[in-house]
Amino acid sequence: MNDGEKLYIWQADVWPQWRYDLAALAGPLTDVSRSQGLLLGRLADVGMALRDQASLAALTEDVVKTSEIEGEVLNVQSVRSSIARRMGVDIGAVAPVDRHVEGVVEMVLDATTRATDPLTAERLFGWHAALFPTGYSGMTRIEVGQWRTDAEGPMQVVSGHMGRRKVHFQAPPAQALAAEIDRFLAWANAETGEPMLIKAGLAHLWFVTLHPFDDGNGRIARAVGDLFLARADGSPQRFYSLSAQIQRERKDYYEVLERTQKGSLDVTGWLSWFLGTLGRAVASSQTTLDAVLVKARFWQRWAGQPLNERQVKLLNRLLDGFDGKLTSSKWAAIAKCSPDTALRDITQLLDLGVLQKTPGGGRSTGYELAG
């Protein structure tokens, strides 16, 4: 970057005076509101227990997918167990949870269940410390719970191998961060007049543009966006996951973000993409709700059967979407029992009509939920 060159949005003379065409965004805003109305209408017809299960499913997806966007794969069962414990939701057998999973869960739940609390530097530091409990990002030691210092050069978002790296974005210099963050937080905690969904999109963009930490900026930016979405919904319960939709559209996300960060302060294009993605996230949550209702009806049907803990655990795994073919050997491994015990468990469920053999057969017999 040459002296005097203004390549990035934060270098504009009037930064951060955001501009957008509200009339052009009226359609996307209406579409999101319609999708939200349809979802909330369905949720109004189910009991509190099912709403809790729907929220648990959405939050689990949110935690898993916000990490996947950064190339990090979390154990879904561990995430679900961690969230369920905090929500007070009984899910039967729980999975072991490590400190890293707990940290991501703590950040997402703090952002959404305490959405009305002020967003402060101390709160952001807490989220950052929760994401990096060991003080390391991979094998690299990072400064945790404080703004970056740029000790090793400007903060850049890059791709490609060493020697052929492409710089997609360079963040504001570290010496400007204190003032920049103060300005962002003052706006975040004030009544500034934007529609709340617009403010959620601006908050995500603004924070990720400041890129104030050594690592974890994308995950924290999405948590900031979720906080404003929870404020817009007027509810601490989450029934959809914007992070999951961003993961599904990750290529578009990075492209529109880079284009916006190298563009003007007219961010109508970014907000149109954000609202469109949000609308698709809300619509997609209908599928999640379908799965919750199917699971509830399943257990209502078989509530009178004396099933053991192993059978309940494996049936829940099938209901949550088992990856691959469930065989007796996999049953034994997951339930931590002998092959003979696994076969007895399966045979009982076959006799009851809970399970059926999968078609095709092959080298080993597979099993699925009947019907």
From TrEMBL:
<keyword id="KW-0547">Nucleotide-binding</keyword>
<feature type="active site">
    <location>
        <position position="211"/>
    </location>
</feature>
<dbReference type="InterPro" id="IPR025230">
    <property type="entry name" value="DUF4172"/>
</dbReference>
<dbReference type="InterPro" id="IPR003812">
    <property type="entry name" value="Fido"/>
</dbReference>
<protein>
    <submittedName>
        <fullName>Fic family protein</fullName>
    </submittedName>
</protein>
<feature type="binding site">
    <location>
        <begin position="253"/>
        <end position="254"/>
    </location>
    <ligand>
        <name>ATP</name>
    </ligand>
</feature>
<dbReference type="InterPro" id="IPR040198">
    <property type="entry name" value="Fido_containing"/>
</dbReference>
<keyword id="KW-0067">ATP-binding</keyword>
<dbReference type="InterPro" id="IPR036597">
    <property type="entry name" value="Fido-like_dom_sf"/>
</dbReference>
<dbReference type="Pfam" id="PF02661">
    <property type="entry name" value="Fic"/>
</dbReference>
<dbReference type="Pfam" id="PF13776">
    <property type="entry name" value="DUF4172"/>
</dbReference>
<feature type="binding site">
    <location>
        <begin position="215"/>
        <end position="222"/>
    </location>
    <ligand>
        <name>ATP</name>
    </ligand>
</feature>
<dbReference type="InterPro" id="IPR036388">
    <property type="entry name" value="WH-like_DNA-bd_sf"/>
</dbReference>
<feature type="domain" description="Fido">
    <location>
        <begin position="119"/>
        <end position="276"/>
    </location>
</feature>
<dbReference type="GO" id="GO:0005524">
    <property type="term" value="F:ATP binding"/>
</dbReference>
